[in-house]
Amino acid sequence: MKGKVFVIGLGLIGGSLAKAVRHAHPEAVIIGTDISEKNIQLSMLLGTIDDSVSTLEAGACEADLILLAVPVNETVKILAQLADMNLKSDVLISDAGSTKDTVVKAAKPLIDKGVAFIGGHPMAGSHKSGAGAAKLHLFEHAFYLLTPGDSIEEKKVERLKEWLKGTRANFLVVTPSMHDKLTGVVSHFPHIVASGLVKQAENYSKENKLISRLAAGGFRDITRIASSSPEMWRDILLHNRDVLLELMKDWLAEMEHVKGLVENGDSEEILRFFADAKVFRDDLPTHAKGAIPAFYDLYIDIPDYAGIISEITGYLAQEGISITNIRIIETREEIYGVLVISFQTDVDRIKAADCISRHSDYETILA
Ligand SMILES: NC(=O)C1=CN([C@@H]2O[C@H](COP(=O)(O)OP(=O)(O)OC[C@H]3O[C@@H](n4cnc5c(N)ncnc54)[C@H](O)[C@@H]3O)[C@@H](O)[C@H]2O)C=CC1
Ligand SMILES: O=C(O)C(=O)Cc1ccc(O)cc1
């Protein structure tokens, strides 16, 4: 598609959307803006955008598609500013914010003027932020929730999907309140719990320094999302307030229940608590990307000698397999260490296991 695309917020999500739009529509011109000069410069340098503008008006009034990818409180403010501008009559506006109810309400003045605003939320991302973390394939196979509202014609929703087809995401239309409930349960509330677990460990680490060292394995994995942008998560909590307060109430009741079971030594009910959770967890789909994207981990039993990591990453590099993270979870003298390499997709992980088995006799485990 030809036209001008204006991306507001050139961080992880804005940059990734810009890359996906460029990939599918090489003839489109992509203009960006950000309050961070560093993110603008980096986006220009990486070719994520063709040009930048220093005012919202300069980019918005010329645009055929405006994508907002800033923290949700900023989204609400920018939507109010856009409503006072002379935009193109057939402009499409969408956002990528993690909450939708307050955002869609903030778009009402635009919608009342006849401007097509379609709320959006690509349900993939990472704990990383900024222009340097943006990736073309970030949203591949992920859900991409859209909240168009009744007044938006179907053909405009289709036009937005066409613009965003380079994401290779699975679009799903929901209402804003349904969106906030669903993401509250599977993304926002788990984030609060992850950060709460980290804070608890931090408190105990004041008593015993061993805590940090012991937390380096599984604890680190289950709390990965606590390393995300605090500003972004502050806004999510403020904008999904009612849903999160309800979930907190339910959670506290559940914890009270478990506390009672432990106090009473109720072995049967404790077993049922874990068994019920295991049944639901084991039944979750493994192939779709969910709200909290997985990183596909490959465990490799490696001998503990200097150069082993570059040997293995060398094999992967030879075959063009890119990795997102690498770490060793166990190295003791004379005992094999375990190298954990994370990949963006399961396909890459399988290719990597095959590649390593062909080049070495190290055992690989797809956990
Ligand atoms: N990080 C993630 O995994 C996901 C984030 N989201 C949502 O996407 C949005 C963007 O998040 P990220 O890209 O992760 O954050 P980020 O921190 O990587 O990028 C946000 C960018 O917006 C810029 N910015 C902030 N206020 C601005 C303003 N008033 N005008 C122009 N630029 C401004 C920042 O300087 C930054 O470069 C948020 O609403 C977030 O809730 C949605 C899906 C996943
Ligand atoms: O890092 C992770 O796994 C995330 O949790 C990413 C994420 C963050 C915010 C969203 O609205 C959706 C996905």
Automatic annotation (TrEMBL):
Show the catalytic activity: prephenate + NAD(+) = 3-(4-hydroxyphenyl)pyruvate + CO2 + NADH
Q: Mind telling me which InterPro entries this protein's record contains?
A: 6-PGluconate_DH-like_C_sf, ACT-like_dom_sf, ACT_dom, NAD(P)-bd_dom_sf, PDH_C, PDH_N, Preph/Arog_dehydrog, Prephen_DH
> Which pathway, metabolic or otherwise, does it act in?
Amino-acid biosynthesis; L-tyrosine biosynthesis; (4-hydroxyphenyl)pyruvate from prephenate (NAD(+) route): step 1/1
Task: Give the Enzyme Commission number.
Answer: 1.3.1.12
User: Which residues are in the Prephenate/arogenate dehydrogenase domain?
Assistant: 3-292
The source's superkingdom equals Bacteria
A GO molecular-function term, please? Answer: prephenate dehydrogenase (NADP+) activity
- Any matching Pfam family: PDH_N
What GO biological process terms are annotated to this protein in UniProt? tyrosine biosynthetic process
Which terms are listed as keywords in the entry? Amino-acid biosynthesis, Aromatic amino acid biosynthesis, NAD, Oxidoreductase, Tyrosine biosynthesis
List, for all copies, the residue spans of the domain called ACT.
Answer: 297-367
Q: Which SUPFAM superfamilies match?
A: 6-phosphogluconate dehydrogenase C-terminal domain-like (SSF48179), ACT-like (SSF55021), NAD(P)-binding Rossmann-fold domains (SSF51735)
Q: Which family does it belong to?
A: Belongs to the prephenate/arogenate dehydrogenase family.
Output the PANTHER family linked to this UniProt entry: PREPHENATE DEHYDROGENASE (PTHR21363), PREPHENATE DEHYDROGENASE [NADP(+)] (PTHR21363:SF0)
Name of the protein in its database record: Prephenate dehydrogenase
Q: Which organism is it from?
A: Peribacillus simplex
